[in-house]
Amino acid sequence: MEIISHIAFNQDGSCFCLGTNKGYIIYNSSPLKKLCKREFKNGIKIIEMLKRTNIMAIVGDVSNETSEFSNNKLIIWDDSLMKTISELQFDSEILRVKIKTDKVILTTKNNNLYVIELLKLNCLNIFEIYQNSNGLFSISSDEKILVIAFPYANCGFVKIKHYNTDINVPHINAHDTNISFLALNVEGNLLATCSQRGTLVRIFNTFNGELIQELRRGAKKAEIHFINFDLNNKFLACSSNSGTIHIFSIYTSIKYLKEKGIIKNKSEKENKKEETNIKGEKIEIPKNQKSFIGSIISVLKLGISYFESEWSFAQFRLPKSENAKAIVSFSQFDNSINVLTKSGNLYKASFEPNLGGECDKINEINLFQENPENS
User: Fold this and answer.
1) In the prediction, which pLDDT does 297 show?
2) Could you give the CA distance from residue 363 to residue 36 in angstroms, rounded to a whole number?
3) Whole-prediction pTM value?
4) Burial class (CB in 10 A: 0-12, 13-18, 19+), 262
């Protein structure tokens, strides 16, 4: 029986990969098509694709150091040649990996984060992360920009490291409990964080650590599985063990970055194109629902200039039978999301950016069942 150990989308969501107890499988997201399936003697714990190339970072799921794919060994793998290009062994188990065209970033069980040159696997930097069993960190996916965010120093704090500027950002006191998930947008100028409570997602300016926007996932405690920005900096998706995918508008955050001159305002022609649909009709800016139940303690502690948090404007509810971890990617072509679960199910759903509300399920496919799209 094939068991999934790892699920991941590539940097733009155009592909996704499954690491299993038998090897790995790569799919094209839209249209759904199985691109390759490789089997090995031992299973794969982590697999991360480099865009749409044949290069990937792999970590095995066994502790035997003599194995080609052990859990403390980083393998840079060429799928077209079906062989290891280079490898690097560490003192403890690797927990999380991200790959860019020139660097690999990873965390290990002994609470270290490594920044490694991809070509020669030279270690450029080592940071100590705040103790967590998941090796949490996030990087910007833009190829010209490297920003790294990770839990640091004390409970609830995050460190931001900019590699393209000499800006030294103060440690961000994001939450009063441990960080459960964090995510950077494509350019690395926005950071989204969530604590172990799982009720709030906070968005910060990564250049000065200022809190910009507070999003409320729900009132009840939940385990956050995934947070992801869309490529165009319009939306943020959050998944949890509640079984609901929440979609938020991040218009407030982007407006703030434009006002501060952190991102450039587009030309009048570009803005007009963005603000109208293919029929030339004006598109309303999606608005999250407002909530006035924000914590006064958080307001005083974090310096929030308002008391309200914002509820998601659109939601997609997984079937009640689906209780596995889910990750989310926004489509590049329309207002839809792909939701991939560790149980091997792929859901596609559309949302109305003006009205919000419940998403419409377009498709539901079990990746291990034989069908034309999986052949």
Assistant:
1) 44
2) 22
3) 0.90
4) middle
